[in-house]
Amino acid sequence: MKHLLNTLYVTGNKRYLSLNGENVVVLEGEQEIGRVPLHNLQSIVTFSYIGASPALMGTCADKGIDLVFMSPHGRFLARVTGEVKGNVVLRKQQYRMSEDENACVGVARNMITGKIYNSRWILERASRDYAMRLDVPLIKEKSGYLYQSMERVRECDSRQSLLGFEGEAASVYFSVFDQLILQQKEDFSFHGRNKRPPLDNVNALLSFSYSLLANLCGGALEAVGLDPYVGFYHTDLPGRMSLALDLMEELRSVIADRFVLKLINKKILNKKAFMQKEDGAVILTDEGRRAFLTAWQERKQETIKHPFLGEKIEWGMVPYVQSLLLARYIRGDLDEYPPFFWK
After folding, report:
1. Quick check: 225 and 304 in contact, CB under 8 A?
2. Residues 255, 8, 302: CA angle, nearest 5 degrees
3. Which of 116, 128, 144, 271 has the highest CB neighbour count under 10 A?
4. Inter-CA distances, 327 with 53, 107, 114, 129, 226, Å
5. Which N-terminal stretch is annotated as signal sequence (predicted)?
6. Which helix (H) or strand (E) holds 15?
């Protein structure tokens, strides 16, 4: 249970929400885990199939408090809301901004700055922690290029130019990604990003983790009242969660890439977790997928100090906090969107 920016997050998957007076009470079995006054809240997000009492749902609807139900894996299920107030105003402003090139560039520029910054620190930390096993001069050279890319991105004034800088930075980052694989090199080698379909074990892991992260970001955006299909950086296409793809850019390396490296380097998965289809696509076996998802859930529960809020949160909550910050920027409560800078 975590209270952030007027939102209560209930992360245990066996917790039930009920009403007691003017308080929301969180129960696990017969035990009370905590309670929070409703007048302090704008929304409640629960990651449990167990649910909430009708009394609480009715009171939240009356008071204009969104009650959002997510699956334990972070997939958006439903939102209980009363008379429509804040969300329609927020979404209308989101739609207006999405049609304004300057507004789009302002948000996208910060997100891509966050992406490049985080990619750079993946390399910096690896060169520090594994100096005897890596080509440190090469890693430092690539890190220096990424630093220069951030400077260019900060001066960028169009999405087209931003796309070019982001693509170049990603190419540089992935050019040394294979060096970060320290174990099981015979079965996990990386020679460039390939997808649709992934053609090797590493790319299969990256693609699956990116898919999970995109769904997590989409659910987080839904939870705060934003439309995950209308973005600022990725082009709007039918059925594509463009804003979720925008949001996940700054989180790819620190959440997905680091997780994939952990699976390989700590030997949580091995070559038996994969199979190759007739068209050459490499996918996880059922057993491999179960092991992956178990480790993914454990990873989401690890904690980090959020660089902007200065509070300790679970890694799985990072997309929700960033979604809240984005919503606050769109509402005009923040001067600019603060990306997630990991170090």
Report:
1. no
2. 30
3. 116
4. 28, 12, 17, 37, 7
5. none
6. none
Annotation: binding site: 166, 234, 249
Binding-site residues for Mn(2+), in ranges, read 166, 234, 249
Read off the amino acid at residue 244.
A
Q: In the structure encoding, which two tokens stand for residue 8, read together? A: 């209560």
Structure tokens, 252: 């790819």
Q: Would strands 66-70 and 43-46 be described as parallel, antiparallel, or unpaired?
A: parallel
Per-residue tokens: 2: 């975590």
- Separation in Å, CA 284 to CA 170, 262, 263, 293: 25, 16, 13, 11
Distance of alpha carbon 17 from alpha carbon 82, whole angstroms:
18
pLDDT tier at 250, thresholds 50, 70, 90? very high
Q: 213, 118 in Cβ contact below 8 A?
A: no
**Number of residues that make up the chain:** 343
Q: How many CB atoms lie under 10 A from the CB of residue 213?
A: 22
Cis peptide before 198 (omega within 30 of 0): no
Residue 168 to residues 7, 141, 289, Cα–Cα distance (Å)? 38, 14, 32
Tens-digit pLDDT profile for residues 192-232? 888 888 899 999 999 989 988 988 898 889 888 899 999 99
Question: pTM for the complete prediction?
Answer: 0.79
Chain segment 281-337, per-residue pLDDT in tens:
888 888 888 898 889 888 988 999 999 999 999 998 899 999 999 999 999 999 999
The H or E element that residue 195 is part of is: none
Q: Are 208 and 292 in contact (CB under 8 A)?
A: yes
CA–CA dist 2, 147 (Å, integer):
34
